[in-house]
Amino acid sequence: MDDSNSVQQEKILDLKSLLKASTHTTILTGAGMSTESGIPDFRSRSGWWKNIDPLTVATVDALEHNYALFHDFYKMRLITLETTAPHEGHYTLSKWEEKNLINDIATQNVDGLHRTAGSNKIHELHGSIETFRCHTCHSRATKAQFLDKKACHQCNGKLRPNVVLFGETLPQAAWNKALLSIEKADLVIVIGTSLQVYPVNQLPFMTKGHTVLINKELSSTHHFELAIEGGAKQVLTRIDNVL
User: Fold this and answer.
1) CA 155 to CA 71: how far, in whole Å?
2) Which of 18, 22, 95, 111 is most buried, by the most CB atoms less than 10 A from its CB?
């Protein structure tokens, strides 16, 4: 075992101890949890789509003024999801929930992979791409209606997924539940996010408990007690093996 593996193993054993001792553990996941299932990270340059920055497509402005581009973008994401499955890391978290090792998962991801893997206590901070509504009157719509570019049957408005677009506020119920869980947590584990997006990047530091970061790249970790470098699937599997 080389030095880097040895250091990672020591940190994994430290996290095992924290998990065993915790009476309330909250998980916060980001894009790095999903990329290992083959979902592009739309915040990275390699994830850019049609040479267009998706951060300018996933907006209220695009929905209202360039619906064709908005629709193409989310149609592409939905089609990608049809052939996407959770990885071992998702199933590990589901197993930990079943064994009462963790209490809640707050996620920035909209893909529903945590739920597909069997997790139940999920707070979707950026909404869900699996359900749809009218942007104008909020009437419910189906996936088929959205994919077929139908107009709202109630008001003829534009249909959209129930995701949080740039320029919109987070769903209050999901935010409140995640915040409550984090405030009473003995342990908060952040997985696969660089914590660049406000206000979710504030959540890990609203706990009085221990804080742990698991991420492929450890750029800024001084706020965390423990930081483990590595992909979500690999690190979670290693932790599960020692539990």
Assistant:
1) 18
2) 111
Torsion of CA 88, 93, 98, 104, to 10 degrees: -160
Q: In a 10 Å sphere around its CB, with 0-12 CB exposed, 13-18 middle and 19+ buried, how is residue 81 labelled?
A: buried
| pLDDT at site 220 | 66
DSSP state of 52: B
Catalytic residue chosen out of the listed positions 123, 126, 135, 210: 126
Cα-to-chain-centroid distance, residue 99: 22
| 126 is an active site residue | yes
Angle at 90 (CA atoms; ends 103, 31), nearest 5 degrees: 100
User: How distant, in Å, are the alpha carbons of 159, 190, 194 from that of 211?
Assistant: 39, 8, 14
Q: What is the mean pLDDT of residues 218-241?
A: 89
Q: Give the β-pairing of 127-134 and 140-141.
A: antiparallel
pTM, 2 dp: 0.92
